[in-house]
Design goal:
Shape: globular
CATH class: Alpha Beta
CATH architecture: 2-Layer Sandwich
Radius of gyration: 16 Å
Number of domains: 1
Helix content: 25-40%
Oligomer: single chain
Structural class: alpha+beta
Distance between the termini: 19 Å
Largest sheet: 5 strands, mixed
Strand content: 25-35%
CATH topology: 60s Ribosomal Protein L30, Chain: A
Strand order of the largest sheet: 2-1-5-3-4
Length: 166
């Protein structure tokens, strides 16, 4: 088993829709970014790639490449899962903390768990999403943006002939 840590942060942008964990959150400014700015998917992608020793989101989807301009970050995460599968790993679980004053994460956490569980092929019971405030401190506390921390646990997929492989 291997553990990876992911982090991402973005400023809010009134001209973009807000998407977190693959879920659209109406009535709130979106996030800056080369792709759709989904900081939850970005942090989880980094955690997975890091756990597998496969680089980071920027090495797989560089912002200098217009292919990824306004890309759906769920698809970037789906590609990261495929990278893991190619090196014989599977996702066990992920734990995500979204740090922001607004929007409130609790009302959309279940939808994010469902979406991420489907993309990660582990189901929502193996995805944790928590919202925390920054207690009005710093740029996050001032409502200028948000940050996300993610931890992922991955495990080797047993191969035929491995002990315990049925």
């Amino acid at each position: 088993m291997r553990v990876g840590l992911g982090y991402d942060s973005h400023r809010f942008d009134d001209t973009r829709p807000l998407i977190l964990g693959g879920v659209s959150i109406p009535g709130h400014a979106g996030l800056t970014g080369h792709s759709d700015g989904d900081a939850v998917c970005h942090a989880v992608t980094d955690a997975l790639l890091g756990a597998a020793g496969e680089g980071d989101i920027g090495s797989h989807f560089p912002p200098s490449d217009d292919t990824w301009k306004d890309a759906d970050s769920v698809e970037l995460l789906r590609t990261a899962v495929e990278v893991l599968e190619r090196v014989n790993y599977q996702v066990v679980n992920v734990d995500v903390v979204v740090i922001c004053e607004t929007p409130k994460i609790g009302p959309v956490a279940a939808a994010m768990r469902e979406r991420l569980g489907e993309v990660l092929r582990i189901g929502p019971g193996h995805v944790s999403i928590k919202g925390k405030t920054n207690e009005t401190m710093g740029w996050i506390g001032a409502g200028e943006g948000l940050a996300v921390h993610a931890v992922a646990l991955i495990d080797r997929v047993p191969e035929a002939g491995d002990p315990g492989h049925g």
